[in-house]
Structures are given as C-alpha cells and as structure tokens.
Amino acid sequence: MIDKELLDILACPACKADVVLENKSGDEKIACTKCKRKYPVRDGIPVMLIDEAEQG
After folding, report:
1. Of 9, 18, 31, 55, whose CB is crowded by the most CB atoms within 10 A?
2. What CATH number is attached to the domain comprising 26?
3. How many domains does one find in the chain?
4. Distance CA 3, CA 45 (A)
C-alpha cells in the first residue's frame, strides 16, 4: 500500500498531472488523472518511468 503523503507529492512524469492509486485484484498501479497512463507498483515502490507505463 502506498502512503497517502507519498501519493500527494507524486505527479505523472509525462504530463505533470496528479495521480491516484488504483488497486484491482491486488494489482496496484499509479494512474494519471489527465493522460491516463498507469505506472506499476513493485514491492510497494511506484515505478514512475514513462517507458514502464501502460497507456490507459
């Protein structure tokens, strides 16, 4: 689970918009509210790399 304080300071590296935590079936992802990219969370650490993102 990502800490709320960490989530509040994160921004999408592609468009700089706010992000939210998505948790579907135990698979956590950090989702951009603007461009809809989804960044993986591995071992509790968000991987905020554009090359690792899924297009939403």
Report:
1. 31
2. 2.20.25
3. 1
4. 10
Give this prediction's pTM. 0.90
Q: What is the DSSP string of 1-56?
A: ---HHHHHH-B-TTT--BEEEEEETTEEEEEESSS--EEEEETTEE---GGGPBP-
* 38 touches 24 (CB < 8 A): no
By the 10 Å C-beta count (0-12 exposed, 13-18 middle, 19+ buried), 5 is classed as exposed
Encode pLDDT of 36-49 as tens digits.
999 999 998 999 99
Domain that holds residue 10: 4-52
Residue 34 to residue 15: CA distance in whole angstroms: 8
